[in-house]
Amino acid sequence: MGIFNMFICVPMLIFAGTMTFAYEPLLGGDARNVLRVSGVCMLLAAIAVWRIKEGRGSAVVAAG
């Protein structure tokens, strides 16, 4: 439960701490711009994960 909370609470705290300073000056105070930035970040994360190659030394164990 602690690890789950860490993966939920820590990003929320980082978001609350950084978005306070970026909302007005960088995003014009418009919530739609926050959604656009979030979408771009998700797209970049998907591209980063897609580029990972699974090699021979992988620690992944096949089930079955």
Uncertain stretches of 5 or more adjacent residues: none
Describe the biggest sheet?
none
CA gyration radius, whole angstroms: 17 Å
Number of strands: 0
| Coarse morphology | flat
Mean pLDDT: 85
N→C terminal distance: 28 Å
| Beta-strand fraction estimate | under 5%
Query: SSE order in H/E notation?
Result: HH
In short:
The chain is mainly α and 64 residues long. The chain has helices at 2-27, 31-50.
Descriptive report:
The protein has 64 residues and is mostly helical. It has one domain (2-49). The chain is built from 2 helices and no strands. The chain has helices at residues 2-27, 31-50. The protein is flat and about 50 Å long. 0% of the residues are buried.
SSE order and pairing:
Layout lengths: L1 H26 L3 H20 L14
